[in-house]
């Protein structure tokens, strides 16, 4: 098992936790020097907060710092523009996504700001979202409209 496997697994666990709470199954972890320093899950439903994306929740739960240079952000889904902007703002230089098909729009933005973006293209991440979308299509549409209004 590579470290990417280990850490994306932790992000998937966060996504499953969010799903169990009735939320959108997206999870994230922030890693520095081989250690998880922040965990988060999409809390849009649980907190009635459209800004509480998994990556934002993760950053809020990470250690307080002036930046996260040298860290890697793992997310079960390719970050949206909000989360990509946070990565740029805080100096995150590597993002590993479990899948990129659901919301690929911000990848070029991140790469244009010097972030290395890795798409693991994991069936497990795709299947988790697909099952959620099948069960709660209206909620997924609301979520995507907030993240990528230009696609509607």
Form type: globular
Strand content: 15-25%
How does the major sheet shape up? 5 strands, mixed
Provide the helix percentage.
Answer: 40-55%
Q: Uncertain runs with pLDDT below 50, 5 residues or more?
A: none
With strands numbered from the N-terminus, the spatial order across the biggest sheet is 2-1-3-4-5
Q: What order do the helices and strands follow?
A: HEEHEHEHEHH
Using only CA atoms, what is the Rg? 14 Å
Query: What is the mean predicted local confidence, pLDDT?
Result: 90
Q: What is the number of helical segments per DSSP (H or I, 4+ residues)? A: 6
Q: N- to C-terminal separation?
A: 39 Å
Secondary structure category: alpha/beta
- Counting DSSP E segments of at least 2 residues, the number of strands comes to 5
SSE layout and pairing:
Elements: H1 3-20, E1 27-32, E2 35-41, H2 54-61, E3 71-75, H3 81-90, E4 94-97, H4 107-112, E5 116-119, H5 123-135, H6 137-147
Parallel strand pairs: 3-4, 4-5
Antiparallel strand pairs: 1-2, 1-3
Helix pairs in contact: 5-6
Task: Please provide a written account of the structure.
With 152 residues, the chain is an alpha/beta fold. The chain is built from 6 helices and 5 strands. The protein has helices at 3-20, 54-61, 81-90, 107-112, 123-135, 137-147, and strands spanning 27-32, 35-41, 71-75, 94-97, 116-119. It has a 5-stranded mixed sheet with strand order 2-1-3-4-5. A hairpin with a 2-residue loop joins strand 1 (27-32) and strand 2. The protein is globular, with a radius of gyration of 14 Å. The model has no long low-confidence stretch (mean pLDDT 90).
């Amino acid at each position: 098992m590579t470290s990417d496997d280990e850490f994306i697994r932790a992000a998937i666990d966060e996504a499953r936790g969010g799903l169990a709470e009735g939320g959108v199954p997206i999870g994230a972890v922030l890693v520095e020097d081989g250690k998880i320093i922040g965990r988060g899950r999409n809390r849009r439903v649980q907190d009635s907060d459209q800004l509480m994306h998994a990556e934002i929740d993760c950053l809020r739960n990470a250690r307080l710092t002036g930046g996260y240079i040298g860290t890697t952000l793992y997310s079960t889904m390719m970050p949206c523009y909000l989360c990509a902007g946070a990565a740029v703002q805080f100096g995150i230089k590597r993002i590993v996504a479990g899948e990129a098909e659901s919301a690929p729009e911000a990848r070029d933005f991140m790469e244009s700001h010097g972030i290395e973006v890795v798409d693991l293209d994991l069936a497990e991440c795709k299947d988790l979202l697909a099952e959620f979308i099948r069960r709660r299509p209206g909620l997924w549409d609301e979520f995507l409209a907030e993240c990528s209004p230009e696609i509607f």
